Amino acid sequence: xxxxxxAVAVAFAALTAGTSRADVIPLFNDVPATxxxxxxxxxxxxxxxxxxxNSFNVDLIFDTAVTSPDITVSAAPLASQYVFPTTSGFTxxxxxxxxxxxxxxxxxxxxxxxxxxxxxxxxxxxVVTVSPGVDLTGPITIxxxxxxxxxxxxxxxxxxxxPVTVDQGMPPPPTVPTPAGWLSMAIGVxxxxxxxxxxxxxxx
Length: 204
Hints:
Layout: H1 3-18, E1 21-24, E2 27-29, E3 34-35, E4 41-46, E5 53-63, E6 71-76, E7 91-96, E8 102-115, E9 124-132, E10 140-144, E11 149-151, E12 156-159, E13 164-168, H2 179-203
Parallel strand pairs: 1-12, 3-13
Antiparallel strand pairs: 2-4, 4-9, 5-8, 5-10, 5-11, 6-9, 7-8, 10-13
């Protein structure tokens, strides 16, 4: 008589195990498609709406196409959209590696009282600034190290987002003077030439 309830319980457990939710956390936000050597760019690391967030650890790796790349990275909180009520516990560091073509930036924080995040209100973990040198060439691939994670009241299991690639862009072409600009330049040249002639006459 007990075999049927036991079989039903096993089947229910199998079904519920198969429907456990996988969440992609944390997330890239506003990563540009291209960069210009010598020009810094920024993007954000955010979390979706979660309940009971009490700590996070982000380890980003920037993989380039050259050895010992001329690139620096940093991270900072933004008080107006930060996940925790204060940014005083935010810590960050950056270093070259782990590979010969890579640099990394780490940042983390924790709170005694867990928080519930709301999109656009308190969903920001950090703003990352990337400064590629004028001699840097090729794409920059940005990925999360496996040590990255967010602690909260989870209802499933978390996976890290796929890497993103920022391709090297072309700098904007030099500005060509408009006809009015050419006219202004010509007038300026004539004025300078007239002044020089006047000086010569006065000194004669």
